Task: structure prediction
Amino acid sequence: MQDAYAMCEGIWSTDGKTYDEIVANGGMIFTIEKSSNGELKGNVFYQQAESQRVATIENIVGVIENGKVMLDYTDDGWGNNGSIEVLLSQEEVIVKIDRDDEVSSEYALDGTFSLKRMNSGNMNAEKQCEIDEESEEKYQSYWSAEQIMEEKKKRENIVNDKEYYEFVNGYKESQMVTDGSWIFEPLLSTDSVVYSKEQFEEMPKLMIHIIKNEIYARHGYVFNDDKLQNYFEMQLWYVPDKEKSFEPDVLNLYEKANLEVLAELDR
Result:
């Protein structure tokens, strides 16, 4: 009986949308894995459509009984706590979240969500083929000039659109950065520093868009947006992880905080 719900393992989302679509339009992603003792384990990622604020409920654990899991949660990233009810079936997963009314947070992850299995793959078959032809290597500080040029040439053979790359290059030149060093590491330290909205006031909208997605690229995310994918392919620090689907719980607290700020500005 414990294996009856193994079919529910995987990634479920609002209307089966991809991660790109959820980030762009809002919705929920529920990553489910079932342990051998009949427990459900998982993580919830939710982004509001209008404010684009992100909520997460991590390390969910509950016993599956007759296709249902009941459990409490203590934090959704917005200071709320409450209960979760999960109904499992082969075609649909229903997640009902009830926030504790005593909590007075301005934002709340609350309501009933119908989820479908996420559409397979985060990229089209053609892009997968291009990336598979020759695996990229991540830049290391000890590389020789020859190794750097070889890796750049390899990546240039993959890329067919340099619009975003040329835009960032022009922007960096306007900031008196002309040595091309920005391709060796991410533009900002969004994984270790929390930035304020004011720090982006003078920055072009496209730079904000790229920096927001840089947070996902750090973790090997493969983009459906060809312009973004082409840009990151040119970054020697970026290596696409095509072996597994992206899971939101890899983001650390700095990245989540910066994502909220950048998502609000990138509208």
